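User: Structure please.
Assistant: Input sequence and predicted structure:
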Amino acid sequence: MKKLFPFIILATLFCSCDTTSKLGKAGDPVFTGPIGVQAYSFRNYFPKDVPGTLDRIQEMGITQIEGDGGRIPPEEYKKMCKARGISIPSTGTSFKELDEDPEAIVTKAKALGAKYVMCAWVPHEDDFDIEDAKRAVAVFNKGGKVLADNGITFCYHPHGYEFAEYGDARLMDYILEHTNPEHVSYEMDVFWCYHGGGDPVSYLNKYPDRWKMLHLKDMKAGTPRNTTGNADDESNVPLGTGVIDIEGIMKTSRKIGIVYYFIEDESSEVMSQVPESVAYLRSLKF
């Protein structure tokens, strides 16, 4: 069993499940760490009022955030977050920037105090195919090395289309198996993994050394699953109320040593649903 990290982000640290486990015994809380959130959840609020939105996030008990301040300089945004007891362990970048200017990514990440950088989309036309996967592998390996050489961990965030079948596996397996583990890690969005036809728990167990972070979101029952990488925003529901095995995911994640967890909610009810998700995570027991 892997040595556990001392803390986790978004959502929390977790423990395994049986009474003999070193991770926890029956009745112990699964969720014990600090709360983290993906800034995209508040995309309809930040442009109107950054300080006010950060205040609301602080009121929810969230102490970690993934993302940047948009038009606000990173150094200033970091100060705004710090004043509210919020740190920024991870931020995002585009595929284009990773390909063309990874040094700029390093500069921004360091200004924010982030040690991780995630990319959540590979541009492609029509259906994502093996040629798109090969291109992604090349860019991830090249850009990831630049980030690694500067003390930053690059993580690709699959968006569902990568789970299209390829031979007797999926394109996601091809990408995982052809990227350099020293330079490329991964952030699983459990919603998009499931939406694309993957099983989050199985993928966490299959590649335990590659996943470093999670986006936690649940899916409304009846939501169609496909490999388009697109779904109705209102299909995002509070954790524990949808069809995704959040409890199993959290226990497995603790077992394999996930570093950070971020709640992400793309619905129009984010202000009410995120607190519900936090409460659910706090309620989990072994």
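The first strand starts at residue 35 and ends at 38.
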